[in-house]
Design brief:
Layout: H1 2-17, H2 20-37, H3 40-43, E1 54-55, E2 63-74, E3 77-85, H4 98-119, E4 127-133, E5 148-156, E6 159-162
Parallel strand pairs: 3-4
Antiparallel strand pairs: 1-2, 2-3, 4-5, 5-6
Helix pairs in contact: 1-2
Length: 165
């Protein structure tokens, strides 16, 4: 969205230099070409949540979206899990501690999970659970070698309110 705004500002600024029908036609042709060449995800207001999508987080670690597990009943009611791969949280070879990952999980809830749910018009669950895992782990299957961090948030008034586990 940001690139689209920047490009439209440049195009609209060029309109002052290109007065008349020919100038306006050139500006409009540029605008149409820009819109047609822009990826659909760049125009959407929600973040792209496709498996393997790289997401920027405060710790600087590479986090990729894995999947969503919906319709699960938890202690607080219906929960939805957004699962992400974060290899740098691994016990033996990782360099991102829980305290750093905790901030990452808050950002993943606030900037990715919640906006995505709002944009698709999903019913808000009682909890949004953010899961970071150093490797792909099948949901519901124990993997003693995997490192996983979990945080629970209550969606309220467009915010992710930390609930903790």
């Amino acid at each position: 969205m940001e690139k689209t705004r920047q490009y439209s500002a440049v195009i609209m600024g060029d309109a002052d230099r290109h007065r008349g029908l020919i100038g306006l036609t050139k500006v409009m042709a540029c605008a149409v070409a820009l819109v047609l060449s822009a990826p659909v995800s760049g125009l959407a207001s929600s973040p792209v949540l496709e498996a393997g999508t790289l997401i920027q987080v405060p710790s600087g670690q590479e986090v990729t979206f894995l999947d969503v597990i919906e319709g699960e009943e938890g202690a607080a009611g219906t929960a939805i899990r957004f699962r992400f791969l974060a290899p740098r949280i691994a016990r033996e070879k990782g360099d991102v501690e829980f305290m750093q990952a905790e901030e990452d999980m808050a950002v993943l809830c606030q900037d990715y999970a919640l906006p995505h749910m709002m944009d698709i018009g999903a019913d808000m669950p009682a909890q949004i659970i953010i899961v970071l895992s150093d490797r792909a782990v099948e949901f519901g299957v124990a993997d003693p070698d995997a490192t996983q961090f979990f945080e629970a948030y209550r969606p309220e008034d467009g915010m992710c309110i930390w609930e903790g586990f």
